[in-house]
Amino acid sequence: MSRLPSVLFHSDLPQAELHAAKLDGELYRVDQCFSPIDEIESRLLRARALFLTIPPRLIVEQRSAAWVYGAARLPTRHQFCADITARVRPATLVALSVREVVIDEEDLEHIAGLAVTTPVRTVVDLARNSLSFDDVELDVIGSLMRIERFGLDECRAVLDRRRNLPHKTLAVERISEALRRIQSVQPPPDPVTPVFSGP
Prior knowledge:
Blueprint: H1 15-23, E1 27-30, E2 33-36, H2 43-51, E3 59-60, H3 62-68, E4 79-83, E5 97-101, E6 108-111, E7 114-117, H4 119-129, H5 135-148, H6 152-160, H7 168-185
Parallel strand pairs: 3-7, 4-5
Antiparallel strand pairs: 1-2, 3-4, 6-7
């Protein structure tokens, strides 16, 4: 018997069959798709699941990008952006949250065929654009910075690439607060055991 693909959509098997296999414990959900239970969930699987279900030329951003990187829960409404030059038709995007943005190739990672804002760009976008910025956003930003191991300097470099960028100061304040939070909850270093050379 041939092995199932790592990510299955209704183009692979009928929807009823996919749900039945999930109920039988053979598959688990990855957003709108399914994966065999012996597949470890990863950013590759999450990116592949989105790639199979969204229109081409969309870029995954903000909370959805953080979800792909493993730093956030699956959002209730995915967030995407499109390069302002891509001419993505809004009529096809009724169920999606999509912004038109100016974005450079250096702000993107390509995972399983999917364009995702880099972790640093994701943090900057969350800090600049989140209308209701609360503990959830602080935790997502802090988790992403901890997982990907970058700090405020990298975020400032992204912010400083564009002149007159709105909410730059606010973004720095929010990112700094997220950093303070993760530093305050980090466990203290292991105590050093003294080494005695003799009497």
